Amino acid sequence: MPTSLFNKASILACSYKQHNSLIGPIAQPIDYLIQSTSKLTSDGTKNKTKKDQHFVKAAKFPKAPQKDQCCGSGCPNCVWLQYVDNVLDYVKSLPLDEKVVEEQKRHIRDELERNVPDDNLRMFLTIEIESKGL
């Protein structure tokens, strides 16, 4: 066995034994990642707090893109189509029953009227939202 290959193998073996493997994101040792995730899952209150924080962040209606962010050429990855996806994610995060779909639609229409001043664009967004399942 060549010496350089032997040295690499012994370094990997030593790293494994000492838990200093740098395979985690941003070069964090893997044992650090295991400890941090186990702390989150073993403590129910921290996990619940994380979910509550995520819900609070998702509870804001998404901000509409600026007019100058759209080129108007009908791109398949238009900022307005991304906005529609964000609105749908917002609606899915609301704590509403399935029986109140009309209330959701009315809420979306009201928010779009507040956030999107152009009538044609607002109608386009409404059609896109309806075509994606709401």
From TrEMBL:
Pfam families: Oxidored-like
GO cellular component: mitochondrion
Domain Oxidoreductase-like: 62-93
Name of this chain's protein: Oxidoreductase-like domain-containing protein
Protein's organism: Meloidogyne hapla
